[in-house]
Amino acid sequence: MGNSFGKLFTISTWGESHGGGIGVVVDGCPPGLPLSEYDIQPDLDRRRPGQSDITTQRKESDTISIISGIFEGKTLGTPIAMTIPNRDARPEAYAEMKDKYRPSHADFTYQAKYGIRDHEGGGRSSARETAGRVAAGAIARKILALAANVEIAAYVEQVHDISMPPIDTDTEADNLPTREQIDANSVRCPHPTTAEKMITRIKKMQAIGDSVGGQILCRVRNLPVGLGEPVFDRLEADLAKAMLSLPATKGFEIGSGFAGTLQTGSQHNDPFETRDGKIRTRTNNSGGVQGGISNGEELYFRIAFKPTATILTKQKTITTEGDETELIGRGRHDPCVVPRAVPIVEAMTALVLLDHHLRHQAQNKAFRFD
Q: 12 or 365, which is more confident?
């Protein structure tokens, strides 16, 4: 199974939704980095369940423990293993799912592929697995910030059919929302008026036992030129894989994305200019990547998330024996996954960028032949 990610900075997550715990092993971290649980816990607190009235009410503190790879407060360059206990698992809520397939879940496909599945909360297919990614991403984010002052900010841009006003990435590149602005409301939308409407919509769906999806915009500032490996490991290709590996994702676009198909070449091209002694582009339809390599402009992309598959409304399905039946969702679930996905998107972004940063340094900076 594909439980590992990255080439030089690698992570391997483990654990199931209602097992004893979850965790991650990080390999390839440079030695000498000051690191403790205090660097990681804030990101996990943003992802954890039960943090507001529009998220799942499962109560997990998601308290992280580092059990290897650190000595006297610094990384050793050896594998860093981290664990998070499951303290509020309620497997009995999923008893009915043992013999019934939940619509649009991984139940049927896991059973068909492996001949066995963990029906308690979805086991390995549960979004609970992403806590390990967030823990690893916190390390990657710290390295990027210290080494290159790279800033990553993701936030909710749309819930259902409610969208915040669009940003102009050509003129608003310097207006990157702060974490405080993003986290000022439970839906993690930095536009307060839109956030109120989003929260109202989510609560409405929650009240009738339904769910909604949405979109997250991720923006990265101060990214150096040169990250990305043509042709198969283009920066946007690895970002797309990272984002589409997240549960409930259904789409990815970078820069102008699908809207770029409505423009002509003369409209879409980003003209070059010299600005403050550096080669820059006047516009940024490319989204910070050209030819699969970062060009120094703001990197920005969007991820689409489907409505939560588990809903508290009766649905038609079949049993594991193929008989028609009905099913009502049980357990505790987010009526909209998008707000809690924000730190997960940021984590996966940091993991991709650090991995490419290390690869770029190894290939293009380690040796000189002139």
A: 12
* Cβ proximity of 83 and 67 under 8 Å: yes
CB 257 within 8 A of CB 203: no
Q: Determine, yes or no, domain membership for 284.
A: yes
- The verdict on residue 302 lying in a domain is yes
Contact criterion met (CB below 8 Å) for 198 and 161? no
Does 369 fall in a domain? no
Residue 330 CB-density burial (10 A; 0-12 exposed, 13-18 middle, 19+ buried)? middle
In this structure, of 29-43, 224-238, 317-331, the range with the lowest mean pLDDT score is 317-331
Q: How many structural domains comprise the chain?
A: 1
Rounded mean pLDDT, 51-70: 84
State which residues form the domain around 107.
4-364
Mean pLDDT of 51-78: 88
Residue 290 lies in a domain: yes
CA–CA dist 62, 127 (Å, integer): 13
* Residue 98 in this model has a pLDDT that exceeds 90: no
Closest alpha carbon to 153 in 170, 167, 165, 163: 167
Compute the mean pLDDT over every residue in the chain, rounded to the nearest whole number: 92
Nearest to 314 by CA among 58, 96, 57, 160: 96
DSSP 285-339: TTTTEETTEE-SSPEEEEEEEPPPS--SS-EEEEBTTS-EEEE---S---S-SHH
What is the structure's pLDDT at 173? 56
Distance CA 281, CA 295 (A): 9
Q: What CATH number does the domain containing 147 carry?
A: 3.60.150.10
